[in-house]
Amino acid sequence: MCDHCLLAGRWLAFALLPLMLSGSVFPQPIEQMRSDHLLKVDLLYIGAHPDDESGVTATFAREVLDGGAKAAIVLITRGEGGGNAIGRELGPSLGILREAEIRRSAAEYGVDLVYFLDKTDFFYTLSDQATYDVWGYEDTLGRVVRMVRLLQPDVIVTMWPGPGTHGHHQVAARLATEAFTAAADPDRFPAQIEDEYLRTWQPVKLYYNARRLGAIFIPAGDISPSRFMSYAEIKSLALRNFRSQGFDRRATVPPRGAGAEAFLLAKTLVPPSPQGLKTLLGGLEGPRDTGIVLGPPPSTEPLSIGMVPRSDIVRYRRWAAEHQVSWVADLLPAALSIGSGMTGALEAEVVSRTPDGASGRVRLDLPEGWADGPLQSDYEVQGRGETTVSFTVRVPDDVEQGSYPVRLSAVPADGTGQAGAAGAAGAAGQTVEGSGMIDVLPVMDLAPAVGPMEIDGDLADWAGIEPHAIPSYHIWSGSLPGGDDDCSAVFRAAYDEANLYVAVDVRDDAVVCNIAPDDIKGHWRSDAVEICVDPFGRSDNTLSVFKAGIFPGTTAGPEPRAARDADARQGVIEKTAPGMRVASRFTETGYVIETAIPWADMPGGAAPRAGETIGFNVVIYDGDETDAGPGANIGKARLAWSYRPSAQALPYYYGRAVVR
Questions:
Q1: Could you give the CA distance from residue 549 to residue 562 in angstroms, rounded to a whole number?
Q2: Is the dihedral of CA 102, 103, 109, 110 positive or negative?
Q3: For 440, phi and psi rounded to 5 degrees?
Q4: What letter would DSSP give residue 420?
Q5: Picking from 135-144, 288-297, 556-565, which range would have the lowest pLDDT averaged per residue?
Q6: CA-CA distance, 224 to 62, in Å (whole number)?
Q7: 386-410 tens-digit pLDDT
Q8: Contact, 529 vs 538, CB < 8 A?
Q9: Distances, alpha carbon 99 to alpha carbons 53, 64, 483, in Å
């Protein structure tokens, strides 16, 4: 070795001597090393898919980049069931792509701990029950609890747990809520403690990322001192990484806005932080109190009355009561769906909270002309019990689809509404009131086909079938600035013993066919028509319905293609509905779709009988970017015959077709 090298080596040894003597160069003693040093976090987000955390990104950037917090993200799936706007990858391959996207996104705001629980990301559903059926409740909860025990967060943030949102989101939030308590209970998933040597852990706060009554709002427009840009800009830079989901179309730089992010405190072991505080981590130092009750206090009224809601809200309320967040469930109104010109059963629930019970009369207040029988009925409820009273409601034929309020009242036995005898309504015999909504749906006759129906795009053989309009104001997502010329439709439907026939004449000022013939999926990405059929007329979710999206053409030309989506058999109809026939024709004002769908390809496998009612909807998807690249998601607007939000995914919002 040369003299120069020897000299350099001696100098380096001399320079490192203080560090060596202090022990800094050598590993810590093993008894001082803990997994907590790597895994312990302050904040944990629990969601269903990559990009679900988009509503908390600016706040996490604030806490991590400038507040010194450590955060992690846990997702129940890899998002492999979503769309893909930048490639052809599907299934597990798409999940790997979306994992890469979220890791790049999270790195923008300093989060490097991202975990997946590897449950299946299946089709878009708004059903909690369908999600539990596929994921499995106990196993999925156990996986969430394991991550809480490992990461030991002080604060958990999750999604909104109630109906009306993606079923995967609902269940992810409910499991996160349950894990908040279960992770601290040694009797829950004891094998994790006995076999995996995990320790129980009790988080301090649980937030729902939701704009609901009582939420706090953390701004995104102020500047991050560490990045010298606004938190909204950091958020846009992060979200642009979700290109497979089209986020780069919305998350512009500079951002179009800097809206605050909302957080509803659902559980806490410390007093709630004051409104206006710009952190989720405030007040964690105080003493723990498991008795803190959030939201309005439980009702102490001796008697209450309310409308019995649909089954999804009933399940949600039961879950919320079991897990001490009942006040959150009360933020959703009770509603019932009835077709225009049809009857339905409305149930009132009377609840007693006293040991004496009560009796009297329930009265129902409806819009004028809706009665189909008495609007009052006697009730008797036992002490600390409940009872239901049923009414028959008939919606007049001329009522437009929409939501209509109804009121209920429980009147004391003496009928005065004033103090009455023992057993009358209320502690002092007072009348109590409740409310609900009736969602009126459109109704049509499903007539027999007039002779043989040719599926050729020519609607001449539909002359005797009643048309039904889908005007531009039947929009439930996006915008149609050009009115009916921008997008609207007229459809007809008929049937025979073999098929359901549907013809849709779409008015569209810019028909776009940017879907490749070997990429027939995700019909919402482009111009398309979706046919939704509930052969039973009472399905709770889309696992028992038929749903197919039909493109009028592809990048190869005007040949139509179709695929089933978000029902129990997904994929191109050649494989999932081999008897289904489709045709299209382009017109001066748009395009025509014509289809024959065999009853044998639908759930149940048989034609309905005359007099029966099935669920039915036609949804139109519009995108006007004529220069769009193949496969690009250009969805601009969505409209439908029954045009409630997410009507394609909620069978109880489908219109009603009466078989004649």
A1: 6
A2: positive
A3: -85, 130
A4: -
A5: 288-297
A6: 7
A7: 999 999 999 999 999 999 999 999 9
A8: no
A9: 13, 21, 40
**Residue 262 vs residues 212, 221, 275, 276, 474: alpha-carbon distances, Å:** 8, 14, 12, 11, 30
Query: Which residues are within 8 A (CB) of 94 and not within 5 positions of it... i.e. 6 or more apart?
Result: 79, 80, 82, 84, 244
Does 22 have pLDDT greater than 80? no
Residue that the structure tokens 């019995």 belong to: 308
Reading the block at residue 328, the tokens are 């959150």
Residue 257, number of CB atoms within 10 A of its CB: 10
pLDDT in tens, 222-239: 999 999 999 999 999 999
> What single-letter amino acid sits at 292?
I
Q: Which two tokens stand for residue 212?
A: 């609901």
Tell me the mean pLDDT in the region 546-564.
97
Q: Residue 610 corresponds to which amino acid? A: A
pLDDT value, residue 428: 46
Query: 271: number of CA atoms within 13 Å, CB side?
Result: 4
354 and 325 Cβ atoms separated by less than 8 Å: no
With a cut of 90, say whether residue 285 has pLDDT above it: no
List helix spans (H) across 48-204. 57-61, 91-108, 128-135, 137-151, 167-182, 190-194
Q: Name the token pair of 656.
A: 């009603």
Cis amide linkage into residue 287, ω under 30° from 0: no
E-only strand ranges, 401-555? 402-412, 432-441, 443-448, 468-470, 475-478, 487-495, 499-508, 528-534, 546-551
Residue 22 vs residues 16, 18, 429: alpha-carbon distances, Å? 10, 6, 80
Q: How many Å apart are CA 502 and CA 462, to the nearest integer?
A: 10
Residues 573 and 560 sit within 8 Å (Cβ to Cβ) = no
How many separate helices (H) and strands (E) can be counted in the chain?
Answer: 13, 31
Report residue 640 as tokens.
Answer: 């439908």
Question: How far is the C-alpha of 393 from the C-alpha of 364, rounded, in Å?
Answer: 10
555: left (phi over 0), alpha (psi -120 to 50) or beta: alpha
Q: Which of 105, 4, 109, 24 is nearest to 66 (CA)?
A: 109
At 576, give phi and psi (nearest 5°): -100, -20
What is the per-residue DSSP string for 193-246?
HHTS-------SEEEE----TT-EEE-SSSEETTTTEEHHHHHHHHHTT-GGGT
Which residues have a Cβ under 8 Å from the Cβ of 382 and sit 6 or more positions away? Answer: 352, 357
From the CB of residue 548, how many other CB atoms can be counted at a distance below 10 Å? 27
- Say if residue 86's pLDDT is above 70: yes
Pair 267, 177: CB distance under 8 Å: yes
Q: Which of 18, 41, 190, 20 is nearest to 113 (CA)?
A: 41
Distance CA(55)–CA(368), nearest Å, equals: 43
Residues near 139 by beta carbon (within 8 Å), at least 6 away in sequence: none
Residue 178, amino acid = E
Q: For 64, which DSSP code?
A: I
CA separation, residue 529 to residues 236, 323, 405, 506, 535 (Å): 32, 42, 32, 9, 19
Q: Give the distance from CA 367 to its chain's centroid.
A: 31
DSSP 462-495: GTTSPPEEE-TT-EEEE--TTHHHHEEEEEEEEE
Core vs surface per residue 265-285: b (16+ CB within 10 A) or e: bbbbbbeebeeeebbbbeebe
Q: Do 548 and 563 contact (CB within 8 A), yes or no? A: yes
Tokens of 281: 């981590």
